Amino acid sequence: MAFVKLSDGPVTMTVGGVRMQESKFGMQFVFSEAGGITEVGVSEGAGNRALGYLNLTPETAVGKTLKFEQVKKDGKTYTNIHLAREGEASAPAAASARAAGMASSGAMSREDAAELYIWALNHANETLGKLCALDNIPLDASALQSAAATLFIAVKGK
Length: 158
Prior knowledge:
Layout lengths: L1 E3 L6 E13 L2 E8 L4 E6 H10 L4 H4 L3 E9 L2 E8 L9 H12 L5 H25 L6 H16 L2
Helix pairs in contact: 3-4, 4-5
């Protein structure tokens, strides 16, 4: 699973699970995407406040599509969690820009290739998953992997 930093941009995902984890900054909620591709960490205090505003608990957040973001105000950084609006992208906004930049730079490190592939998986899951759901077509891992590989090759080749 890819652990996404909110400082890289907002993340929208359908929550598949929530667990508590110790970090170097204290306890945090780790929200895992349904399908197991992305994880986002939110401090315990910020997570409790934000979930409280939404009238959710970690247990009732599972299955909801949430948008996670960091906002800077008066020199402080705040973590916000919102119910996602219809059609919001699931990948962090900065990830696709980074992916395009990595692809155009030529040779790619192992880490950059992994990040580009994670972006491709997220994008394939979002687009192919929606299309399959609309037409009641089952989506299996091989179809998702094929779509992600196609995106990866297309972006890497630019």
